Amino acid sequence: MSLRIKKLLTMDPDENEKLITAEGWVRTKRDSKNFCFFEINDGSSLKNLQVILDKSSEKIVKTIDKISTGASVEFTGYLVESPGKNQKVELKAENVLLWGESPAETYPLQKKRHSFEFLREIAHLRPRTNTLGAVTRVRSTLSFAVHSFFQSNDFLYIHTPIISASDCEGAGEMFQVTTLPLDNIPKTKNGAVDYSQDFFGKQSNLTVSGQLEAEIYALAMKNVYTFGPTFRAENSNTSRHLAEFWMIEPEMAFCTLEGNMAVAEDFLKYIFSYVLEHCPEDMEFFNTWVEKGIVDSLRKIIETPFVHMTYSDAVKELEKSSSQFDFPVSWGADLQSEHEKFLTEKVCNGPVIVTDYPKEIKAFYMKMNDDGKTVRAMDVLVPRLGEIIGGSERENRYDMLLKRIHEWGLQEEDYWWYLDLRKYGSVPHAGFGLGFERVIQYITGMQNIRDVIPFPRTVKNAEF
Ligand code: ATP
Ligand code: MN
Questions:
Q1: Cβ contacts of residue 99 below 8 Å, gap of 6+?
Q2: Which atom of ligand 1 is nearest to the CA of 389?
Q3: pTM
Q4: How far is the CA of 460 from the centre of ligand 2 (A)?
Q5: What is the DSSP secondary-structure string of 367-423?
Q6: Has residue 169 got a pLDDT over 70?
Q7: Which end of the chain has fewer beta carbons closer than 10 Å to its terminal beta carbon, N or C?
Q8: Which residue, judged by its Cα, is nearest atom 25 of ligand 1?
Q9: Largest CA distance in the chain
Q10: In this structure, are residues 436 and 268 in contact, taking their beta carbons and an 8 Å threshold?
């Protein structure tokens, strides 16, 4: 039976010398006269398994010659106490099986430190590095934590469609889905594209959010969430935008903005705690090599209540330091990343939930406040990153929603079912969207969002 390396490293030396097998890819190899030393990794942990192989036969010596960094190998032997101080045990191997060689002259991953830019060019090999391995484990653990939080709080997991004919944000940035022949696009009499001939009979796109559909289910199942791929044709090259990312969107009926804020805070604290508890070794790695002090800063966030602040108060705070910013601050303008960071790092010294934004800079479906100027929106801002969550209480009044749809120049017919939900059993409801990669970035301290998703999709890049 072969055991994962993570498990082997927790075991005690075996005095009965029971034969076990360990498999993995070679990280290092060091040859001496009678023995050969290896470190192998199988992705289950940051730590490698040390292996000492006795050069007991001609056959073994020949095999050793063919093994180099990156090769896939299988060792058979028994666990002995390790003289090294980094691990309890190591494998004293009696035999080796070389599954696949890895020619040293061409294998791109050498022992030195490679830049993340370079590693992106070899995304088929980068999970074999310490950093990307740690990111992969943290990402997997976090996915589980997301489901665990919602499932244990009686939220139902809803699969919303990837292909959609409604633009949630009422704005551009969408990838079109079509089967129309691009070299011979059918046109209507007045020269427009004739979408009636397209696959769905109307213009359709990859989803930019599952929210509108999640609202349908919230208004039947009370508490629901989605967790799926989301697409935005963001033509900007930033370290926090992808064209394909994963979004988590809870939606709750019988819930106002206050309840929404409470769930967002509980949720973030839950997943932060979860990853600290379940990935201590990987988190220590990020703490040492990627972002010093990150573990303590996450702990502090878990213990401290989030600050709440209205947009208007936030603008007042920012205006006091307006000379520090590249972008001007004034009531009515959207907060820029530099403003968001300033609020969290300098004003609040921790996460802050900014609420009640001007209606002009938020989506049409957000609930109008009595002032007629602001909407019940909330953004959760965190140090280092800025916005991590965007959400709102939804407009649940039929007449007001219709008015907003008209104000935005949207077609009433396109939103018939969305309006229907305000006609039949409407109730205050609210929800938010959290970019999964943003949260991984935040927790690991990784600078670039392209390094926390296995296969980043960005402008001019869809390799692998
Ligand atoms: P930003 O201003 O950062 O572009 P947004 O206001 O467009 O964000 P929302 O539409 O509110 O974002 O989306 C909800 C969440 O999805 C954001 O808070 C963020 O965590 C995440 N998100 C949005 N766009 C992207 C993207 N292109 N890549 C990765 N995550 C994203
Ligand atoms: Mn955006």
A1: 71, 72, 73, 74
A2: 18
A3: 0.95
A4: 18
A5: PBPTTSSEEEEEEEEETTTEEEEEEEEB---HHHHHHHHHHTT--GGGGHHHHHTTT
A6: no
A7: N
A8: 241
A9: 86
A10: no
